[in-house]
Amino acid sequence: MFLEDCIIDDKGSEWLHELAVNNSVLVTLNFYMTELKVEPSDLELLAKNCKSLLSLKISDCDLSDLIGFLQTSKALQEFAGGSFSEVGEYTKYEKVKFPPRLCSLGGLTFMGKNEMPIIFPFSATLKKLDLQYTLLTTEDHCQIIAKCPNLLVLEVMLLHIYSIVFASENSKYLIQLTR
Questions:
Q1: Quick one: which of 37, 45, 127, 128 could link to 103 by a disulfide (CB 3.0–4.6 Å)?
Q2: CB 104 within 8 A of CB 154
Q3: Residue 38 near residue 7 (C-beta atoms within 8 A)
Q4: Which distant-in-sequence residues (6+ apart) come within 8 Å of 68 by Cβ?
């Protein structure tokens, strides 16, 4: 189901609850860049009932509220859309653990230097990383890139020339650098 960047008259989050209860074969759900609000418990229910869910791109939702969903989503390979509402408060996010098969991560709104460690445990398996809406410096970009040797796609809003050279030298598979 693809709703990205759509204007939707949202009458509440019941739609996601109904989808989670009545659908067990959903593979992709994308409502990234929409104004749709969801209950984290409905996302967790979706993960429990849709064991085949491989890709989820959501609207703005604090990552600390998604711990249960992320622990339940064993098959998830692509995730985009979480946010860090408490910038600089790593302790709020240290329990966030992404699924082991995740290879595409993006839309981490307001991620700063202090929150970067949540992606380090699986960074070597990442093929696609979107850092467009983060609060990272050139040095932060370089630190992340160094931990992602298998990146194929790196998306950033602004990248200093030094970071581009660093990415080309440290990500031997990088085929797409987007801004």
A1: 127
A2: no
A3: no
A4: 40, 41, 44
Q: Is the pTM of this model over 0.85?
A: yes
Helices and strands (DSSP H and E) totals, the chain? 6, 7
Question: Is 89 within a domain?
Answer: yes
In whole angstroms, give the CA distance from residue 173 to residue 162: 18
Q: For 165-174, how does the pLDDT look when each residue is reduced to its tens digit (9 = 90+)?
A: 777 777 778 8
Outline where the chain has alpha helix (H): 14-22, 40-49, 67-72, 90-93, 138-146, 161-170
Q: What CA–CA distance (Å, rounded) separates 58 from 80?
A: 6
- Report yes or no on 102 lying in a domain: yes
DSSP string, 108-136: -BT--GGGGGGTGGGGGG-SEEE-TT---
Q: Give a yes or no: residue 176 inside a domain.
A: no
H or E segment and range at residue 4? none
